[in-house]
């Protein structure tokens, strides 16, 4: 195939194949986000304020794993949630994608 790697050949035919190989845990993160939303562990409404920085060991609101100093975290406060919520970047993105799609969830308020 003219110098193309096998991955490049597959990707040329099916662009989603590259995404699946590079981000195998995206589906897992999105499912965890849906589960956390359904369990009311994280809100549906968009936060009023978000900030970020290096992790400090707090557990992620989506995956519950600690966010280490070598990772970036996003944090936000939300009315109705007593503590600041901490997210890995990927988990925050999963939450953003899923927060308006959860079956049975009330419509988001902006």
Compact overview of the structure:
The protein is 35% helix and 13% strand.
Textual characterization of the structure:
- This protein has helices spanning 6-13, 15-22, 26-38, 89-98; strands spanning 50-54, 72-76, 85-88.
- The chain is an alpha+beta fold and 110 residues long.
- It has a three-stranded antiparallel β-sheet.
Range of strand content: 5-15%
Discrete helix count: 4
Instruction: Determine the fraction of residues in helical runs and give it as a percent range.
Output: 25-40%
Instruction: Show unreliable segments.
Output: 4-12, 14-23
Number of strands: 3
Rg:
17 Å
**Shape category:** globular
Main beta-sheet annotation: 3 strands, antiparallel
What distance lies between the first and last C-alpha atoms, to the nearest angstrom? 51 Å
Helix/strand-derived category reads alpha+beta
SSE arrangement, N to C: HHHEEEH
Strand order of the largest sheet: 1-2-3
Q: Mean of residue pLDDT? A: 78
């Amino acid at each position: 195939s003219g110098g193309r790697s096998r991955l490049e050949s597959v990707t040329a035919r099916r662009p989603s194949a590259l995404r699946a190989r590079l981000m195998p845990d995206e589906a897992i993160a999105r499912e965890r986000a849906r589960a956390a939303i359904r369990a009311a562990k994280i809100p549906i409404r968009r936060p009023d304020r978000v900030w970020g920085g290096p992790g400090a060991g707090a557990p992620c609101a989506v995956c519950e794993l600690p966010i280490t100093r070598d990772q970036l975290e996003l944090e936000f406060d939300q009315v109705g949630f007593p503590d600041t919520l901490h997210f890995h970047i990927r988990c925050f993105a999963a939450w953003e994608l899923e927060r308006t799609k959860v079956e049975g969830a009330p419509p988001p308020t902006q």
